[in-house]
Amino acid sequence: MKIAFFALRQFDELELCEKYSKLYDIDFNWISKYPDLENLSLAKDCNAVSIVPCEITYEYIDKLYSYGVKYILCRSIGFDHLPIDYIKEKGIKISTVSYPPECVANYAIMLMLMTTRKMNQILIRAAAQDYSLKGKMGKDISDCTIGIIGTGSIGSCVIRHLSGFGCKILAYNRHINKEVEKYAKYTDLDTLFSESDVISLHVASNKDTYHLINEETINKMKDGVIIINTARGTLIDSKALIKNLKNGKISSAGLDVIEDENGLYYHNRGGDVIDNDELTMLRSFPNVIVSPHTAFYTETTVENMIEKTFAAMLAYKDGVSNPYEIKL
């Protein structure tokens, strides 16, 4: 069995691939570039390809299918970048990975702390040696009501860790988690929107959650609400977000993800003219933190992503159930 790794990072992933290739007795080859019609030939003698979130078109799938690729192994939890229905037609199986929720959960809390305390503006002004206080007064997170949308592994971890700050926590999820009820009060979305000082998103990207944060739902929120997103950019209507940042309805935002980020993040784009008007606008606001999809990025997480990619391939090799497979 052999895996073709695309967009493999030599500085942090390659050594781990070598380690788990030996451990699981699975061969691999790799390229540092993202997949395109020219370099997909890397997969010609491989059973599987491993990718990170990036553009994957029907034409790419056709090529992979023609090469005999049977598995797409995502080095990510999300798989919304894939044309799922078309892959299903081809009979190709999709696998993702999992990793400890603490990395993203703690990153989300960091963004909450930074936005409530206006840290971005403090740092920007300090860099210009402006040490005055006007405009820097924040609010203590302990005095806030925090709304958590989605109480899966990451959302519930956010809630557990937030409980130590003494803030009031509201939660929304289709299914109630009894463990979460020890720390938070489950409520409907409208109540969460209207009562929360800070709203943090921890749901998957799908047709039901597309633009969950939009003009209508923002109108239900408190004046001066803070929005945190470490999940997927498509959960927020960027135009509605920008409009309401301008008029002050939203006082601040901490965004690790944005819409239309494929082809943007994880590249060095220094000196480039970037064709993403929403990103340009969001970066211009001193009350908005935009980080380049790095909430996941810890030593533990990267190792988990590589190990579970090989573990999924081993399951397919041995003909046993793959716990990371997406059931299509």
Strand order in space, largest sheet:
8-7-6-9-10-11-12
The count of β-strands is 13
CATH structural class of the largest domain: Alpha Beta
User: What proportion of the residues form beta strands (DSSP E)?
Assistant: 15-25%
Structure, described:
The model has no long low-confidence stretch (mean pLDDT 96). The chain folds into 2 domains: 2-99 and 298-326, NAD(P)-binding Rossmann-like Domain (Rossmann fold, 3-Layer(aba) Sandwich); 102-290, 3-Layer(aba) Sandwich (Rossmann fold). The strands form 2 sheets. Strands 8-7-6-9-10-11-12 form a 7-stranded parallel β-sheet, with helices on both faces. The protein has a 6-stranded mixed β-sheet with strand order 2-1-3-4-5-13, covered by helices on one side. The longest helix has 20 residues, at 299-318. It has 11 helices and 13 strands. Helix 1 (14-24) packs parallel to helix 11 (299-318) and helix 4 (102-116) crosses helix 6 (153-162). With 328 residues, it is an alpha/beta fold. It is globular, with a radius of gyration of 21 Å. It starts with a strand and ends with a strand.
Write the layout of secondary structure elements.
Elements (H helix, E strand, L loop, with lengths): L1 E4 L8 H11 L2 E4 L17 E4 L6 H9 L4 E4 L9 H7 L2 E3 L6 H15 L2 H9 L17 E5 L3 H10 L5 E5 L12 E2 L2 H7 L2 E4 L13 H5 L5 E5 L8 H9 L3 E6 L21 H8 L3 E3 L8 H20 L6 E2 L2
Parallel strand pairs: 1-2, 1-3, 3-4, 4-5, 6-7, 6-9, 7-8, 9-10, 10-11, 11-12
Antiparallel strand pairs: 5-13
Helix pairs in contact: 1-11, 4-6
